[in-house]
Amino acid sequence: MYKFLSRRPFSGKVKKMSSKLSNIQRPPKDPPDEGYEPTCIDHDGIQVADFVRPAAFRQFSGPEEKLGPGAGIGLEYKNAHYFAYHRFSFLELQNQALELRDERRLSGGIQDAIEADEEEECNEGSVKAMKELEAECEKIIAVQAKQLEEAKKQQELCEAQEKKRQAEEEWCKKKAEETKEVKLNALLEMTDEQLKEWCEKSLKAQLLEKKKSGEEDKCAAEKIKKEADLQMKCEAEQKKKEEELKLKCEAEQNKKEEELKLKCEAEQKKKEAKCGLEDAKKNEDKKPNTGADGSNNNKK
To answer: Whole-prediction pTM value?
Structure first.
């Protein structure tokens, strides 16, 4: 099925590949050694031209076999053919290219006419993927349009608020100038007595404002002092409570340790007394029995 690359005309003989094991491990997607002549390419992820023989591609487990990470007609990696080749695909494609070249030379370099009205068959998986992609694009466009509209409304609102603020500032500035001008004219029209009275009232108002400000500062200082005193008092009480709790815990711990110590000593004394009694009893049992004449009755 595979041909040698040479300039000699193709004799029609196909060299049979050896079925012996080679000294290298073959990839799991290699074609069979003999009899691999597929009639079509049954996979939804790739499209192959009619002049390319299916033998240039490996066998697939099914039309929906995963070719590679994101590889397919309607997926991110469009060159899904890379994951469909086998170890001898290059040789097979090269032989097909040489055959096409030879056929074109024999026909005088004239290329077969391609029907312009011929429509390619649409792949169902590609159409489905395209529709899904189109729906996602429409959703994204709708979201972006909504965001742009909201941003435009927000910008218009900010511009309206800025115009309103500028108008208010201009009005206040104009009103202040008018008031200043009226007061200046009123001062110019005053007599000496009226001017003196106005100055006295102005000074009194300033002194009163200053006094009021000083009282507010004093109240604020007193408030800060009271808060500081209260915080110190709270901290002292908290510290006192912690010390009392600590002393109480230590006293309880010492009391428990003392009770445990006394209990252990009592147990120890009880055990020692019991051991003493047992030793005395053993010694009594070991002591030889003597009669009235002082002879040992235990002797046989």
So the answer is: 0.30
